[in-house]
Amino acid sequence: MSEPQRKYIVLLGVPGAGKGTQAKLLKEKLGLPHISTGDIFRFNLTHETELGRLAQSYMSKGNLVPDEVTIRMVADRLQQADCDRGAIMDGFPRNLEQAVAFDAMTAPYGGVYRVPLIHIEDEEAMRRITGRRVCRTCGAVYHIDFNPPRRAGVCDIDGGELYQRDDDKPATVRNRLYVYYKQTSPLVGYYFAKHLLARVDGEQPIDAVHEALMANLTD
Ligand code: ADP
Ligand code: AMP
Ligand code: ZN
Questions:
Q1: Fold annotation for 7-120+184-217
Q2: Which one of 12, 21, 24, 37 would you pick to mutate in the ligand 2 pocket, going by the greatest count of ligand atoms within 8 A of its CB?
Q3: Which ligand approaches the C-alpha of residue 142 most closely?
Q4: How far is CA 27 from CA 9, 30, 50, 145, 214, in A?
Q5: Which tens digits make up the pLDDT trace of 149-206?
Q6: Residue 24 appears among annotated catalytic residues
């Protein structure tokens, strides 16, 4: 007997495109878990696990953590009970090897459901990343100009301290964009050829991007 279909949604876009912001909104609407490999690595870094120590050297330079580590981590995460209807993937897959591995993981459940590409220009990506602030306790994402908290430096949700990610400083951001174009952007063609790609204009207000994504995911 075949397994029931699941909705595995892959959000694509340069760093800063708004994948995390949109994934959090989609999670509420669609009732699917938000899986951010960057968040999982950062959690491990904060808790000083072996995985965190390994990831640190790659993340601090803006390079990708090796595939074997990342793919195993995602495969483990997808085994958890909350993923039994699918998942919203944010930051994975990030190269062709990971995309092929993800196809294999999801094949028993109907494969990848859809791949929205949130498009913004590189200059906008630089502005968004360098102004991004993250809550130390709940992970909520703000922008000092575009999506500011009510009180500077303080999370609206839980009063946690907002900090700037180390890899959001300009020198690292440029390498992260380079890594995106070299390693991740081939996935645009990969998923287009599979008729899964849906382009969305990411240079609109957060709500408008959300509406465009919902239109793509519920038709
Ligand atoms: P990604 O997960 O793709 O790296 P984020 O969701 O963390 O991107 O967003 C990057 C930054 O841009 C954050 O500071 C966020 O608050 C801000 N941001 C997200 N979406 C928009 C938008 N539509 N307009 C303006 N700023 C945005
Ligand atoms: P993000 O939070 O998506 O911006 O990711 C932050 C960093 O975590 C990246 O620059 C990489 O070093 C690492 N990372 C996140 N996702 C992956 C992935 N799928 N493969 C390899 N490294 C990743
Ligand atoms: Zn918070």
A1: Rossmann fold (3.40.50)
A2: 37
A3: 1
A4: 11, 5, 29, 25, 11
A5: 999 999 999 999 999 999 999 989 999 999 999 999 999 999 999 999 999 999 999 9
A6: no
